Amino acid sequence: MNSPFLTAQEAASQLGVKLPTLYSYVSRGLIRSEVTGNARRERLYSAEDVQHLKERQEQRRDPASAVAGALHWGAPVLESSLTLISDGKLYYRGYDAAILASQYTVEEVIGLLWGNDLRSQINSLNKPVSKAAGIQLVRIISQVRTYPLIEAFQIALLLAVSEDPSAYDLRPNAVRQSGGKILRILTAVSSGQVQEGNLARTLAMSWMPKQQEKATRLLNAALILLADHEFNVSSFTARCVASAGANPYEVVTAGLAALLGTKHGGTVNRVEALLGEIRTPANANRILSRRLKHGDNIPGFGHRLYAEGDPRARLLLELMENEMPRSRILALSSSVIQAAKALIGEEPTSDFVLAVLARLLNLSEGYGLGIFALGRTIGWMAHAIEQYQSDRIIRPRARYVGNMPHVD
Question: Using CA atoms, how far apart are residues 110 and 99, in angstroms rounded to an integer?
Fold first, then answer.
């Protein structure tokens, strides 16, 4: 469904019902409708609502098939009050993520996702770092500095949790404090130093001190836009691990393992390699065409949840253009976007834009994925808090398709 709306006939046809039944669905609030601006004042019906209702009908007709398909971009399988993806937009607890990224700090959005309030204060993020904690962070940084960034994150968390018995307190407020500590650890590992204050500013001071204000605004927006994205692979993994009663450090470690996969966050690394291969705008069309001829895909383009393009990518590109309009990397990314759109008709995703952002900030290989991991840690912790409160283990059953038991 490329259009967000359907005519009455189209909606009724997709649902396999007559028009009066369609109108009854609208009156019951199951399908949203809008009056068009043409002379006939016809009504159009939400394609998304029609699709959701169709999925519910199919689930009732064939529950087994519906459940099997649910694990592959299918019908929802778990309830959550964190994130909504609707009509090409991303919302956190009802707030448009694009507005949050433009007008709020990442700490305020953490308060929203972890505590349902933009004004919530996470003490472990806002209080000064104690002398003991500072010494511990310096020691951890020195122990992991030779490893690639995501692996350094995982090792750092293993080292830190061994000295934090409070991590095993899974009550909501305690988990929020653990989450704050985890973000501080990952930020310290990323920046190579112990700093107090805003997370984005801490990173900017280390990564781009001469253009600190610009970098802070870009990183703040990126961390917010990448904080959560419903039940993606890493968030679902984190949620499953939390449902088993694992502590928050273990939840984030598991999320990082999933994020590294080449079909998930690892796509950012693939985009970085692609940009390194293209090098100049003049090479974009030739190299992308060659990839297609060889049967390779073009990483970082096309998202199944956003028919009109990834809104996170769109906003981050706009912000980068505003902050550093004369950058060579932005000229390169523009040529790649134009060539990809001409060749495959797809818009860039957040994975592509994170790789561009990492280059814009002159970061080492793997740091685009590191920004992704820092932002998504916020979401993993929000899912952990929600899952701990449900007190239910996620344990689906398998539909066995192997050999049946032998009867002698």
Answer: 15
- CATH code 1.20.1250.20 for 5-77: no
Q: What are the tens digits of pLDDT across the range 126-149?
A: 788 888 889 999 999 999 999 999
Residue in the structure block whose two tokens are 């098939």: 65
DSSP letter (8 states) at residue 166: G
Strands lying side by side in the sheet with 33-35: 5-6, 43-46, 33-35
Tokens representing residue 279 in the block: 């090098």
What is this structure's pTM?
0.83
Q: Would you put residue 366 in left (φ > 0), alpha (ψ -120 to 50) or beta?
A: left
Where are the domains positioned within the chain?
5-77
Q: What is the largest CA-CA distance in the chain?
A: 78
Return all residues near 323 (Cβ < 8 A) that are at least 6 apart: 214, 217, 218
**Among 153, 160, 110, 125, which residue's Cα sits nearest to residue 385?**
110
